[in-house]
Design goal:
The chain is 31% helix and 37% strand. It is an alpha+beta fold. The protein starts with a helix and ends with a strand.
């Protein structure tokens, strides 16, 4: 009787593992087929290019000191491509303090957010209060700063190149539609960016 219970338990564990494996396989094949069916089209911005899904349209916008292009899907604008003068991604709209008097004075300020912390230097250096995550990656032999939101309802998805030509012009792509699908899609799109000399 004891042996039968042991084998039954082992059988149940094996069945559960097979079901989980089957479900995971189905999900991965669905995701794979969605990405494969999506047709990509190359878009050229001055001396750079990137590939976007065929359903997205790039439209030149009016700008004064740089070139700006909107990325649209259907009748919805989901982001922009900037070429020219554009600063690297950084969050400087908040401060972290260990002094309660300063925090009390600034906590209701609309222009700069104040945070109270026992270790403000560490929290500021580690970006604890940032809305986005930042990291560097190499895209087709060029160093790029990547930006991803920490939460689905705040922040942006983006990439920034410090220099894309001899004049040290910059290029940035910033997406404001923060769906999980867009996050995965644009991480792939960023890999398609090419900078021509």
């Amino acid at each position: 009787m004891l042996k039968t219970g042991y084998y039954q338990m082992k059988y149940n564990v094996l069945i559960k593992a097979q079901v989980k494996f089957f479900l995971l396989s189905c999900i991965l094949s669905l995701l794979s087929s969605c990405c494969k069916n999506q047709e990509f089209v190359s878009h050229t911005i001055v001396n750079t290019s990137l590939s976007l899904p065929k359903s997205m349209v790039v439209k030149k916008e009016w700008a004064v000191d740089s070139e700006v292009y909107s990325i649209n899907t259907g009748n919805k604008r989901i982001g922009y491509i900037y070429y020219g003068e554009y600063k690297p991604f950084e969050e400087d709209n908040y401060m972290v303090t260990v002094e309660s008097e300063i925090f009390e004075k600034l906590k209701n300020n609309r222009e700069i957010k104040a945070y109270f912390s026992d270790n403000s230097d560490r929290d500021y250096r580690n970006g604890i209060y940032n809305v986005n995550y930042y990291y560097y990656d190499t895209i087709n032999h060029h160093k790029a700063q990547i930006m991803l939101p920490k939460k689905m309802d705040k922040g942006s998805i983006g990439i920034h190149f410090d220099s894309v030509n001899a004049h040290k012009d910059k290029m940035a792509v910033i997406i404001h539609d923060l769906s999980e699908e867009n996050k995965e899609l644009f991480l792939k799109v960023f890999k398609t960016i090419k900078i021509n000399p």
